[in-house]
Amino acid sequence: MIVTVTLNPSVDYVVRLSELNIGSLNRTGDATYFAGGKGINVTQVLHELHIPSVATGFVGGFSGEFIKDSLTARGIQTNFVQIDEPTRINIKLKTRDETEVNAAGPSISTENLNALLQLVNEYGEGDTLVLAGSIPSSLSSSLYGDLTEKASSSGMKVVIDAEKALLEPALTSSLHFIKPNQHELGEYFGVEVKTVEEAILYGKKLLAYDIENIMISMAEKGAVLLTKDAIYQAQVPKGIVKNSVGSGDSSVAGFLAGREKGLSIEESFRFSVATGSATAFSEGLATADDIERLVPQVTIQSLI
Ligand SMILES: Nc1ncnc2c1ncn2[C@@H]1O[C@H](COP(=O)(O)OP(=O)(O)O)[C@@H](O)[C@H]1O
Ligand SMILES: O=P(O)(O)OC[C@H]1O[C@](O)(COP(=O)(O)O)[C@@H](O)[C@@H]1O
């Protein structure tokens, strides 16, 4: 079972407007709500691909109800800890550019946290734990480190998709997969990563830790996958980007789905890139048909 943990889920409010005038009244075109948050998106895409997954984390209030309802209506397995404050709403403004305003999120009590830890403790050998997204400020920023240590000592594979401050405490344990984008990789080393060559250079430095698969996504510039034995570079398919929110999460789901389906590392990487792009080219998250259509359009080059 793939267990995704979203400590800070969100309702993503995607608003389209021709231009944003700061300090004036703006009226929107289309506006849509999506159940979001990184782990929740991973579970949604895995469900679309018929890979068993359960979404856990904290949800509360009317926005939490929206998330639970929209997942359960589609038959997606959830096991959330109910909290008192409402789940956050993240604003995604689509003008010519994509501007995101991600809220800090609700406060989480010690009781809530213990309930979540207990729930995660029910999994072990053969299961995969996905820790993805921000951690609400009322919880320790070293929480992914603690969860990773416990999970990997109980035989679980651990996947992390989070910024440097949250990933770093987990680097003392072994990790199955991480997927920083080029900006997050740069942030890790206090540099700007602009080219594939730079992504490889800094990706190799992360291989010094016990990480099996490191994928660096670079949006339209492609992606790189590094393991102890191989480096692959992918070119993304061409298409019109409709809404790239969730495309990174879809890449994570795509890689895990590839491995669950028994694909090689290289083919799982191809599937991952196709899944990320299928989401970028859709209003919501990728569909299985769109992913399959894009797989042959992803070119992979082996660099060693
Ligand atoms: N403009 C684009 N064209 C094609 N694919 C894209 C585009 N933007 C994102 N993607 C797909 O989504 C994946 C993740 O996007 P990226 O922006 O790098 O990650 P994140 O969403 O985590 O910041 C990419 O590897 C690619 O497959
Ligand atoms: O927890 P964070 O870092 O604030 O990110 C949450 C946001 O990221 C998303 O999961 C999308 O992430 P990606 O675009 O990186 O795939 C949104 O659904 C959500 O609003």
Automatic annotation (TrEMBL):
CDD domains: FruK_PfkB_like. It catalyses: D-tagatofuranose 6-phosphate + ATP = D-tagatofuranose 1,6-bisphosphate + ADP + H(+); beta-D-fructose 1-phosphate + ATP = beta-D-fructose 1,6-bisphosphate + ADP + H(+). Keywords: ATP-binding, Kinase, Lactose metabolism, Nucleotide-binding, Transferase. The keyword Kinase applies. The keyword Transferase applies. It is an enzyme of class 2 (transferase). GO terms for molecular function: 1-phosphofructokinase activity. Its EC number is 2.7.1.144. SUPFAM superfamilies: Ribokinase-like (SSF53613). It comes from the Bacteria. Belongs to the carbohydrate kinase pfkB family. Belongs to the carbohydrate kinase PfkB family. LacC subfamily. Catalyzes the ATP-dependent phosphorylation of fructose-l-phosphate to fructose-l,6-bisphosphate. PANTHER family: 1-PHOSPHOFRUCTOKINASE, 1-PHOSPHOFRUCTOKINASE-RELATED. This is Tagatose-6-phosphate kinase. It comes from Jeotgalibacillus marinus. The gene is pfkB.
